[in-house]
Amino acid sequence: MPKSENPYPDWPGFEAPRYTPVPDEVFDLWLPHLSGAELKVLMYIIRRTFGFKKDADAISLAQITKGIVKRDGTRLDGGAGVVKSSAVLAIQELEAKGLIFAERQQTAEHGDEPTVYRLRLRPPPVSENHTRIIRRGSDFRTRGGTKRGPAPVQESDPQERVVQDTENKREGEDGSSLSENPPAAPPPYSPVIAGAVLDVARALHDDLAGPGAVTQALRLWQESGLSEAAFVAALQAAQGRSRKLAAVLAALARQIAG
After folding, report:
1. Residue 120: which of 92, 97, 101 has the closest Cα?
2. Measuring CA to CA, which residue among 239, 238, 213 is closest to residue 122?
3. Where exactly are the structural domains of the chain?
4. How many Cβ atoms are within 10 Å of 40's Cβ, its own excluded?
């Protein structure tokens, strides 16, 4: 097999890590059972969601296959590196295997909008089987909807205009939709804090703790003004007799506020 051409022959190496958390099960359970296209699409979805401290994100097929470009021409990413037909099949297989949920979005003004993707977490999102009618420019706010099965991926990709919409509506650094009331900026990421939170979750056998708990802990750390080491010590002290990570973080929040 001929060697593929190196697209970055002068690449100096990785920067000091700025992490996108990837569930261990991707490597420990699923890696041997995913095709190359499935793995690429899954990792792209993880990057667009967990990588920007979000549980879900609206992603069009054009973005999966071609990447995201800001209005000023700055390229945010190159997509998953798969062609459209492979992306469609990969999404269908990832849904069938139960790794992701796909929610078709609609607006009264424009009809079909980019599908919202999220990883399947325990417990599943309450809204996993709903088609939501949203206001353009809102941050996935529900206005109404009817129950549906898992959203099919359409070969025709009615969201092809998203390549142009990227210039009109996706101008944040993470490529997400702007809203009338944009959410607060995500807290700074710390692998030390994130690792400590996950360690506490494992010690408590709290399998329901997800990325949201890490984000909550990072916000508490930001508000506390403590060093990473001091915050981890406070987190461990707050564990006490708690059986759930949420209770530990609540106790820690009271301690910081007091």
Report:
1. 101
2. 213
3. 24-169, 191-257
4. 19
Q: How far apart are CA 77 and CA 147, in angstroms?
A: 34
SS3 content of the chain, % helix, strand, coil (to 5): 40, 10, 45
How far is 156 from 231, CA to CA, in rounded Å?
A: 50
Per the CB < 8 A criterion, the answer to whether 131 and 151 are in contact is: yes
- Report which residue type is found at 50: F
CB 87, CB 61: distance < 8 Å: yes
Cα gap 161→186, rounded to integer Å:
29
Per-residue pLDDT of the chain (258 residues; tens, 9 = 90+): 456 788 888 888 877 767 888 988 899 889 999 999 999 999 999 999 998 888 889 999 999 999 999 888 899 999 999 999 999 999 999 999 889 988 877 777 766 778 899 898 876 444 444 444 333 443 443 333 434 444 455 544 444 444 444 444 444 444 444 444 554 566 777 778 877 888 888 888 876 666 678 888 888 998 888 888 889 888 888 888 788 888 888 888 988 887
